[in-house]
Design goal:
The chain folds into 2 domains: 161 residues, no CATH class; 58 residues. It contains 4 helices and 12 strands, in the order αβαβααββββββββββ. α3 runs antiparallel to α4. The chain is elongated. Pfam families: TMEM70.
């Protein structure tokens, strides 16, 4: 069953990000022009301070990633010396030990990346680009290589609860407009950009796009490398 956007459980801060369901929808059509417009407005819109959120574990996760990469680098560097140093162990045993050491370190680094990938270091509520439009939210996460990924969600109604471990929200994969918004149903078969992920230079590297069907139902898909899951401290958003 498709999630009804107006009926899901949200906390007080999350509710403040959403517009009333009776408001006229302000959509971004999937096109090159839309992406260009979003990039130009990326650095021009400044939120009010009361809507800024900072993740308290940002520095901790940053150090954890650095430690994980350092451990992997040292393990990969030292492992070849196991074949140079004289030992009673046969070559097959040395190869097994080196493989286990590198594989274990690489696996732990991958786990750290998977756990910390959705963690939101900062969240901002942006005023609508046009009067009466939809407030946008902007969330910053960091990749395993410590590169910032800024995801701007153009309609917070597409942000729902998630069952993914170490995450609280996700971009909805299937949606259905509530009855109150049925007069503004998009044309079936049309596609619109719901969210975009940008790098530190403001270049769009991924998009979350909805394709509308009949009765206001839509199915979303990703284009490029878009951040879909987000981990926030809900108790700090109230």
């Amino acid at each position: 069953m498709l999630p009804r956007l107006a009926c899901r459980h949200i906390n007080a801060f999350h509710r403040s990000l959403l517009r009333p369901c009776s408001a006229v929808a302000s959509w971004r059509i999937l096109s090159t022009a839309a992406s260009t417009t979003s990039q130009k407005s990326f650095s021009a819109t400044e939120p009010s301070e009361q809507h800024v959120y900072h993740g308290p574990l940002s520095n901790t996760f940053r150090r954890l990633k650095l430690f994980s990469w350092t451990t992997l680098g040292l393990t990969s560097t030292i492992s070849p010396f196991m074949f140079v140093i004289e030992s009673n162990l046969p070559a097959s045993a040395r190869l097994s030990l080196a493989t286990i050491a590198v594989t274990t370190s690489a696996a732990s680094t991958a786990i750290v990346g998977w756990v910390t990938h959705p963690y939101v270091t900062s969240l901002r509520r942006l005023e609508p680009p046009t009067p009466g439009g939809v407030p946008e939210i902007e969330m910053t996460t960091y990749s395993l290589t410590l590169k910032p990924r800024i995801t701007r969600v153009y309609d917070p109604d597409f942000v729902i609860d998630t069952s993914r471990p170490f995450a609280k929200w996700e971009l909805a994969k299937s949606v259905a407009l509530p009855v109150e918004r049925r007069p503004t149903i998009p044309v079936p078969g049309s596609e619109e950009t719901v969210a975009e992920t940008m790098d530190s230079n403001g270049e769009v590297i991924g998009s979350w796009v909805v394709r509308w069907a009949e009765n206001g139902e839509g199915t979303c898909r990703s284009i490029g490398s878009v951040v879909r899951h987000f981990n926030v401290h809900l108790e700090l958003l109230r």
